[in-house]
Amino acid sequence: MPAAGVVLIVAVVLIVVALVVYLVQTIVALQQISTGLDDAIAGVGEIVEKTAPVAAVVTDINANLDAAVDALEGLLIKKAGLGDAVGLVDGLYPGAAAEGFRAIDGSADVKPPRIAEVYTRGTLTLARLGREAPIAVVSPAGGPVLRNVTGGSLAARLLYPEERQGRPERLSRSPVIGTEAPVQYEPSHEPGVRRRMPTNGGTTGADPGAV
Amino acid sequence: MTLWWIGDIVLLAVVLPVVVYLLRGVLAEAKAIVPSVRGIAATAAAGSKDLDAVPLLLTTQDQVVRTVENVAAYGGSLDVIIDDDEER
């Protein structure tokens, strides 16, 4: 065999060896890729399976919440009127009046009144008890926004008239009832109907068993 | 004979390097995909694990229904005990 033929054979062998080495490594890499894709597909399949009922459940939750919101908004408007209702919502959530109520057309165009002009002092006081309530910030009555957490029970007295909390000893005692009560009342045969009208100083019990 | 030698030289100097170059390129790209695929598989497994809490949505759904029922009951009571705006 001529020398050129030997060189040719060597060259072909080298090419085949190179092909085998690199292609085998490529096959191994592709097998790893295939295994990884199988794992990924299994994970994605689990995700799809687990998220399948989410849409229906969330839709049902939203439908229930929408119904509750519509009912409460309707009740609020029924009881307070559209203007005051918008004012209350805007007082609790500043800026919410611009969005209006979802189920009420034109509610976004209502100018929210000042909350202090609409609601009683009791409402403002109750709102002020909440921490940093927005309604308390704009309260015309002033006072601290934050509730006194250390003396909270005493602070609650401020909700009631002074004569009832500051000087309780000056109040008249509660009436005594029972068989030994100083004032006896006759039992009536019919509810709300007295046997006879009371005289001055109360009625004396004609019936010893009166309660 | 001269052409044979020329063919041998071309085979060794041109064809073999080109084949090696191309095969190395294919191998490098294939190996580069492996970590990405493993990362995708790990992420999919983690995402699937995160969704284990999805069945709790059924509890949430039930609680929402009960809460709305209570809200409706309170609303009905408020509707009775509070005067309407037109009545005040």
How would you summarize this macromolecular structure in one to three sentences?
By secondary structure, chain A is mainly alpha-helical. Chain A is 53% helix and 0% strand. Chains A and B meet through helix 1 and helix 2 of A and helix 1 and helix 2 of B.
Question: How would you portray this structure in words?
Answer:
The complex is a heterodimer of chains A (211) and B (88). Chain A has 211 residues and is an all-alpha fold. Chain A has a domain at 9-52. Chain A has eight helices and no strands. Chain A is rod-shaped. Chain B has one domain (2-82). Chain B has 88 residues and is an all-alpha fold. Chain B starts with a helix and ends in a 7-residue tail after the last helix. Chain B is rod-shaped and about 115 Å long. Chain B has two helices and no strands. Classes of the chains: A mainly alpha (211), B mainly alpha (88). The interface between A and B is large, with 50 and 48 residues.
Question: Topology of this structure?
Answer:
The complex is a heterodimer of chains A (211) and B (88).
Chain A: H1 3-51, H2 54-80, H3 82-92, H4 115-118, H5 121-129, H6 134-137, H7 152-155, H8 162-165
Chain B: H1 2-50, H2 56-81
